[in-house]
Specification:
By secondary structure, this protein is an alpha+beta fold. It folds into two domains: 121 residues, no CATH class; 151 residues, Rossmann fold, CATH 3.40.50. It contains five helices and 18 strands. Strands 3-1-2-4-9-8-7-6-5 form a nine-stranded mixed sheet, with helices on one face. Strands 10, 11, 12, 13, 14, 15, 16, 17 and 18 form a nine-stranded mixed sheet that branches. A hairpin with a 4-residue loop joins β8 and β9. The longest helix is centred in the middle third of the chain and has 19 residues.
Length: 278
């Protein structure tokens, strides 16, 4: 097991596949040390379902909650193929994957990312679905559902601001520090390895949608709330909501946010940049 620090969280991490982590996670590695949190992947022959009644059931998963923590079982064709286990303080989080699963390396990357994002919530850190770039030591986040052109829009920015840095191409991390929202990168950045181990203050968030012309509108606080709740990693437990409520409140009150209906060309980046005043 090696040790890493992401957004101030130090943790031990043992992964099985290198496809998504090699030439990516090394920038977050630290010397061996005592840490409170560990995330581990195990490859197993089979997964045994508890005899208890599940606390919650979804179309392909069951959740078991007890005094010690939580277990989530994921099914494929009626058989359990994944088990995710965490204790209440996220001291040890384990992902068990049945050997021989198709796409196991991507599954490991996605689900260890989910485990880490849960750990972030425990530490009052929110992840937002979006692409974060650093420009003049401030962060701009382009957010929105999959398929709205976030990565494409970032590519257009390269034509007008070639010196900007990609902080995270999928789920940047946001926390509150001395009254200011700070954004950090992490090695979980979607299917790309577009991330940086740096932190900068948040300048603004732009929620993208596709359009036939470029129209950028500043959002009201009520509109901000709707967009934020659609795009953050929402806590499932009340305790975790309490942990991040101050972060969300500060985002709504203090961070400029925009709805941008944009075209798929460099003119969109020029229009958004002008609207943001950067």
């Amino acid at each position: 097991m090696k040790y890493y620090e992401v957004n101030g969280i130090q943790f031990g991490f043992s992964y099985h596949f290198t496809d998504f982590f090699e030439n990516n996670i090394e920038k977050y590695e630290i010397d061996d040390c005592e840490v409170e949190h560990h995330i581990e992947t195990k490859m197993v022959q089979s997964i045994v379902i508890p005899s208890d009644i599940a606390s919650m059931k979804f179309h392909n998963r069951e959740v078991y909650i007890n005094d010690h923590g939580e277990q989530v079982y994921v099914y494929d064709k009626g058989f359990p193929v994944l088990m995710i286990e965490t204790d209440k303080e996220y001291k040890r989080s384990t992902l068990s994957i049945v050997e021989g699963m198709n796409g196991a390396s991507e599954i490991e990357y996605v689900y260890t990312g989910i485990l880490f994002m849960e750990l972030c919530l425990y530490h009052s850190i929110v992840s937002l679905h979006g692409a974060a770039i650093a420009l003049h030591d401030q962060i701009i986040i382009f957010s929105g559902p999959s398929g709205t052109g976030k990565s494409t829009h970032v590519e257009y920015w390269k034509e007008i601001e070639p010196l900007f840095e990609i902080i995270n191409d999928d789920k940047p991390l946001l926390h509150l520090e001395r009254g200011e929202i700070i954004v950090s990168g992490s090695p979980w950045s979607g299917k790309t390895k577009g991330n940086s181990n740096v932190s900068f203050p948040l300048h603004s968030i732009v929620f993208l949608s596709q359009g036939t012309s470029n129209k950028i509108v500043k959002l009201t606080e009520e509109q901000k709330m709707i967009h934020i709740m659609r795009n953050i990693n929402r806590p499932r437990q009340n305790e975790l909501w309490e942990n991040v409520s101050d972060v969300i409140e500060s985002m709504i009150k203090d961070v400029p946010m925009y709805q941008a209906s944009i075209t798929k060309n460099v003119d969109a980046a020029i229009a958004v940049k002008k609207a943001l005043g950067v």
